[in-house]
Amino acid sequence: MANTSVVATTTTPAATTTMRATTTPRATTTTAPITTTTRVAPALAPPPTQSVAPTTTPYVAPAPVYTPPPTVYTPPPVYTPPPVYTPPPVVEAPSSVYYKNCSAARAAGAAPVYIGEPGYGSHLDRDNDGIGCE
User: 107 phi and psi, to 5 degrees?
Assistant: First the structure.
């Protein structure tokens, strides 16, 4: 503590008295509580907001957007009839087949030759039973 002087002057009609009080640095005991004030720099805080009850807005779906159909022209399919089965042509043995003897008929793979078949001849049927080269 610094040295300070306090001067008190009392004036009365009979006499004037002057008293001087001086404080010196020495240990003193204080019975009164010491009040300490600490100042802290204020933090940057957002301004207080008012508490407002939340309001809800019902969801409204957007109106559907019309999309026209595509303008690409696709012609209808052309009718194609199913294929018709055509059997292979029947190869008929020529009616002018003639076997000189049974060896020639066997070489051609026609033996035995039955009556009414091409290549049948009575000269191939020795017993006249209708089967030649048996």
Answer: -65, -35
Q: What is the mean pLDDT of the chain?
A: 75
Strand 5-11 to strand 113-114: parallel, antiparallel, or no bridges (unpaired)? unpaired
pLDDT single digits (tens) 10-48: 555 555 555 555 555 665 555 666 666 667 666 666 666
Q: How far apart are CA 14 and CA 104, in angstroms?
A: 191
**What is this structure's pTM?**
0.30
Phi-psi region of 130 (alpha: psi -120 to 50; beta: other; left: phi over 0): left
User: How far is residue 100's CA from residue 121's CA, in Å, rounded to a whole number?
Assistant: 9
Helix (H, G, I), strand (E, B) or coil at 105: helix
Largest CA distance in the chain: 202
Cα separation, 53 vs 67, whole angstroms: 42
How far apart, in Å, are the Cα atoms of 85 and each of 12, 37, 78? 156, 115, 21
